[in-house]
Structure formats: structure tokens, C-alpha cells
TrEMBL record, chains A, B, C, D:
Substrate binds at S53, T82, D83. One of its GO terms (molecular function) is asparaginase activity. This is Asparaginase. Residues 3-155 form the L-asparaginase N-terminal domain. It comes from Panacibacter ginsenosidivorans.
């Protein structure tokens, strides 16, 4: 069965607007990324929103949860801004779905040469296939249970709480 | 505990010699790749050989197997040319180690902008952490058991035998 | 004799801060760029300021002009934000130096894969060697006299006034 | 008037065949390169051949010369393998055309991230607009007269004969 990929925005999909000099969202680069990775895993990609995760509201998180619940697939990847990834993971875990849900993202936009996005998606796709049901964050080559992860704002790295 | 990474060469680490116009091996790009991926997983990297996998001999495969046996780690990634990855996997499986061993590689050298190497290593690191003991090939976002994989020479994709 | 390169900032040298998600200035990438271009032209690089050209003051422009006047070299390249490049060119032209001065920049930061910076610097280095004394803007593969150039804010392209 | 660009192959346009692991020629990347450089110079691109310059024959060089003679444009850029660039320049100079002809190329294929091709084309476009009639080689940020240039096979750099 396919893996479902939900896009919510975050650094991962930010682009540079060369007219205004600002970072902004246009379309997701997920298909391009999977093509670059020569991925042969069947996936269904759907964009739910295109926002900075600092601007994500409770309503947004509920929308993501509903989409996970309704999805035919039981393996789901969610691209997400790194700042509140742990918060969304908590909301998803509260729904106690019999699914493997992996949240991932990037510290550097995919379109900038030096992005970690390709590496993180490689990890997320592997974890979603091999981890049991539950909600996980996959960043920095590691995976974290939803209730044992935070982003260290000083270093930018994800780490365990205990 | 750390993950052991053994380097054996293959397309993954090939470089372009701008004086001769030939592809060649110099050093592995593994540390550079893991830095780009912002990987925070402790790893031990050791280069065993730097060869094209079409030139890999039985002696080379035994050397790889011995190093896997001797390694203190029970999670091992091996970068390898794609052409004979399945053959080396078979030799490793014959040793029946209580370890998780994942072979991976690239269709395009890491140093060429369009490489799948970063994606594959993201996958391999995730699979080696989450799969049970056994020998696996991780390519194209998928994993394959050592006894059920071949490279399709026409398409370049890895696929199951049955 | 060497070519003098003055750095003033602009999009060319902007970087992405992965902790804050903001664009910022750190160091110039000029040496790295010239190495990538395998440039064999002797150059002297000096950073005068690291600012967005929309924030450039009269005092800043006078500082640039003074440095051009004092420079031992009579071939000078200035990297500059694109928004007020034409304005700085006018100040430099008012000094009537017996030098060839070429202003250039980038629409996309050099550190983002899709930058025009390498192309523009290739052009600027060529123009400064082959154009007569005067003040010029080199962008989009073209050169413009200081008194016949503006940036089209809608398209991002440089064009002649008449 | 437009600038004419003739494509003849060389390292500039080589690609990596991920099935065979060999370098090969497919199409020229010139349009893609000029788009990346945001070039606004009108150009006419025509592919004359796609070969390694070590395999270029007298007949090939005559074909290039004939195309330069017949071209409506008097500003011509020729992309060319670096090994025999000086030889082709000599053949073109023997035709004594009232045109500015600039040969350029790359030490690293354009499709490999670390290519000097974008830099060299930026230079070549600038030199062809600003140099007098004659035949020149533009490499390494410099230009050379056809009768005073050779490629140093040890360093890969172009240098003057005297």
C-alpha cells in the first residue's frame, strides 16, 4: 500500500523571492525531491497548508489530525516546520490511531543547495515503513517518540527530554 | 551505541578528475554528507576499500564480512557499488551474524549535484536503527531482504525477485 | 596589475540562518566563488561594509568612492545590492576617476544553489578588463553606462533608460 | 544584434549516465545556464557537434569555421573542449573574419555542482561584447589572443606562450 505524505509548509518548502528578497511559500518540492532520490515507493502527496509552524493554530492541528484519521493509508509522513513539530505530534498522539505517523522537516529550505531536506525525507520514508504504530519525529538521522522530543532552540538540534 | 559505517567505494564516492576527465576515487564523502544532513547519530566510519563493485573479488567480500564480524557495533551500514550489492549481501548473510547490516549506495556520485546519495544514506541510517537482525539492501526509498533483491540493469532500479 | 574587488554586501552575500530562519550577512563568498570559477586573475579583495543596499547612506557611498580613489588599481569591481546600484554608480561617476569601475551583484544569494552570482562575477571580471575608463553596471550578461541604467522593480531585470 | 553561440561539445556539456556509469553527451545545457544567469542578451544557439575535443578532426574545424563565416552575427561564442581549444582558434584566425570570436569551455561538466561553466560563460559573453575583432580564448577569468595561448596539461590552467 502507498505511503501518505501530508505537506504543511515549514522551512522545508520555503523559497527565495528574488524580486522582494523575502522568503515565501509557493508549491511543495516533494515530487522533485522524491525524483532526485530515485524513490520507488508508491506515495500519495497532499498539501494541507503552507505555513510557518510558529503560525500554526489549534484549528490547523485538528485539520492535520482529521486528515490522518480519514486517510486510507496507515503509514503517514507529515512535513512540518521544526519549531512546533513536537506540539503537533502531541495532538496527533491524542487521537490514538492505529497508524505509523512520522513528522519531519528541514533546517534549511530544500531549494538552497545545503539543505538537509533530502536526508530527512530519506529517513522519514524508512522509519514510516519500519516503526510500529505511533507518532514519531524524524530529524537529524534519529527518531523520537512524540512524548520524548523537543527542539533545542540554541543548537537547532532535536533531542530527548529525558 | 554507535552505528558502524564501512566504506567500500562504488558510484557513491566517485569524483571527476578535471585534469584527465576521468572518474576516480579519492576519499569518502561520508563525513561531509552526514554534516549536510545535520546527523546527530554517533557513527564510526572506516574505509575498507575504494573500488568499483564490478571489480570486487571474493577476497574483498570476505574482508568486508570479517570486519562486520569483528565490529563492536551490531548496527552496520556498508556503502557499496550498486552492480554487485546483492552478491555481497549474500556473502554477509551466510555468516549468520546477530547484527543488522544495511548495504546502500548511489546511482549518481555524491559530488555531482543531482545525487541520490544523501537520500539513500538517510534511509539506510533509519533502517539500520529500526529493522531486526539480518542483511538488507536499502535503495530507492525501500529495503530488501538479502535473498530477495536484484538490480534491474535496464532501469537502474532495485526490485524484488518474486 | 591586480584587479581590486570591493565588497559592500547585497543579496550576493546573504546567508540563511538556520536557527532563526532569517537571511543575514556573515562573510563574503568571493574567494570561494573565484576558486569555483578557477579564476587565475590576480585580485585584491576588501570588504568595505556588509549591508542591504536599501540601507546604504550617502556616507556609505562616499566611503566607497574614497576607497576607489585611493586604490592603487585602476580596474575595480564592486559587489553591491541591486536596488540602489545605479545610485552608487552615479556618485562614483561624479568623481571622474581615470579608472574602470564595474558594479555587479546577484538576484539570488550565492549560497543558494540557483544563484546568478557566479555568472555575474564572470561577466564583471571580463568587462573590467576590456571596457575603457568609466563607471558601469554589469548584470544579466550586459553592461550599462552609469547614466543609462535602472533596475526594473517588477521584473528584477536591469535595463537602459532610453 | 544577437550574439551567436555555437556548441561543439567538450567537458562543458558532458553528463553522467547512471545506468552505465559513463560520461556521455546528450543535449547542450546552454539555455538552462543562461536562464540561471538571468541573461538578457539576445542569443542564437546552434549545436554543430557534440564531441570530445581530442576527437575533433580538420573537417570538424572547417565546419566550425564555415559556420562562423556564414553567420549573420559578428559576435560569436564557441563552447569547446579545453584540450584542443587553441588549435581550433588557430584555424578560425586563418580565415581573417571581421568578427569577434570567443572560445570557452569548462574544466568540470555544467551538470556537476562544482562546474566553472557558469563563470566562464559569464566571461565569454562579456568579452565577446567588449573585445575588438579577432579570435580569443576565454578561460579562468582571462582572455587570450589565439596566437598566445596553451592549456597547461599539468595544472589544467590556460596560460600565455610568452
Amino acid at each position: 500500500m502507498s505511503i501518505r505524505i501530508f505537506i504543511t509548509g515549514g522551512t522545508f518548502d520555503k523559497e527565495y523571492n528574488e524580486i522582494t528578497g523575502q522568503l515565501f511559500f509557493k508549491d511543495t518540492h516533494m515530487s522533485e525531491l522524491l525524483k532526485l532520490g530515485r524513490s520507488r515507493i508508491p506515495v500519495e502527496i497532499r498539501t494541507l497548508m503552507m505555513i510557518d509552524s510558529l503560525e500554526m493554530t489549534d484549528a490547523d492541528r485538528n485539520l492535520i489530525a482529521e486528515n490522518c484519521l480519514k486517510a486510507a493509508e496507515n503509514k503517514i509522513i507529515i512535513t512540518h516546520g521544526t519549531d512546533t513539530m513536537a506540539e503537533t505530534a502531541k495532538v496527533l498522539a491524542s487521537k490514538a490511531m492505529k497508524k505509523t505517523i512520522v513528522l519531519t522537516g528541514a533546517m534549511i529550505p530544500y531549494k538552497f543547495g545545503s539543505s538537509d531536506g533530502l536526508f530527512n525525507m530519506g529517513s522519514a520514508l524508512a522509519f514510516v515503513q519500519s516503526l510500529p504504530h505511533g507518532v514519531f519525529v524524524a530529524m537529524n538521522g534519529r527518531y523520537f517518540n512524540w512524548d520524548n522530543v523537543r527542539k533545542n532552540r540554541q543548537t537547532g538540534a532535536f533531542e530527548e527530554l529525558r
